[in-house]
Each structure stands twice: as structure tokens, then as C-alpha cells.
Design brief:
four-stranded antiparallel sheet, Alpha-Beta Plaits, globular, 2 domains, single chain, alpha+beta
Length: about 160
């Protein structure tokens, strides 16, 4: 199997419903060409390095797919170029199979936020323990220095 990654930029003025339609059309075309989709997700809206068709921003989409042969890859590239909503695209071959991306659900995000809210107390307790350890280490080093001075004076 050969693994590919295709990054394409969609018109930033499209609302979510229109973006979903573009993603669906690309996924259908990938399947039509005998390729199977591994990951297909929205990467986010980002500022472009230079304007493309008078757009300063673009909605980036990331597509990972696999195929047994690269016969239809040229047709897929041509399809991507001819799509009006797609400003730019680039497809590269990957050396290994990409990991399957799992979208975070709102419940998981909320649980993560709650965990972050609970951690300050733990962080403060840890800081207090570190401060206590630091003070005890300083006391040990001071006593060691005093012992060394006392030994030198006795000689």
C-alpha cells in the first residue's frame, strides 16, 4: 500500500455547511478513484503567506488516503485543480501509514478543562514541597560548609 497526504486550501468565506460539502465531494472522488480515506479533517482557518485570489486567509483541510497503485493520482490532482472552492492543493507520498485522528468531542474538552481547573491546588502543593526540599538542601549545604571550615581551623 502507498500512503498519501493531501493538503488543500478552501475559500475562507465559506460557512461550515459549504465546507462540509467540499469535504464530502473530495471524499467521494477519492473513493471513486479506488483510494480509501484514512483521515479527512478541517485543520483550521489560517493566514496565508501571500494572497491567493485576493484572499489573505484560507480554510486548511488535511486528507490522508491509501491506494495500491498511483494510476489515478493524476486524475485526482486534476480534479482538485479544477474545483473552484479549492484555492491550492498539494499531495505528497508518505513513508509510513499515518495515525488515525480522533476528533475531540465537547464532553472530552469539558473534562479536560475541569482537570485543568483542579490542578492549581496540586501545583501549589507541589511548589510548597519543592520549596521545603530546597530549604532543607540549603541547610544541608550550609552545615557542610560550616563543617569544612571547622575542620580547616582545627588543622
Amino acid at each position: 500500500m502507498r500512503y498519501y497526504e493531501s493538503l488543500y486550501i478552501v475559500n475562507p468565506n465559506y460557512e461550515q455547511q459549504r465546507l462540509d460539502e467540499v469535504i464530502k465531494a473530495v471524499a467521494e472522488k477519492v473513493s471513486e478513484f479506488g483510494m480509501s480515506v484514512i483521515n479527512h479533517r478541517e485543520w483550521g482557518k489560517k493566514r496565508l503567506a501571500y494572497p491567493i485570489q485576493k484572499h489573505k486567509y484560507g480554510s486548511f483541510m488535511l486528507l490522508h488516503f491509501e491506494t495500491k497503485s498511483a494510476e489515478n493520482l493524476d486524475q485526482f490532482e486534476r480534479f482538485m485543480v479544477l474545483q473552484k472552492p479549492i484555492l491550492r492543493n498539494q499531495t505528497v507520498i508518505l513513508s509510513a501509514k499515518p495515525e488515525i485522528h480522533i476528533e475531540e468531542t465537547p464532553a472530552v474538552v469539558e473534562a479536560a478543562k475541569e482537570a485543568v481547573e483542579e490542578t492549581p491546588a496540586v501545583v501549589e502543593a507541589t511548589k510548597e514541597e519543592e520549596a521545603t526540599e530546597t530549604v532543607s538542601k540549603e541547610e544541608e549545604s550550609e552545615s557542610t560548609v560550616e563543617t569544612d571550615l571547622t575542620e580547616k581551623e582545627q588543622e
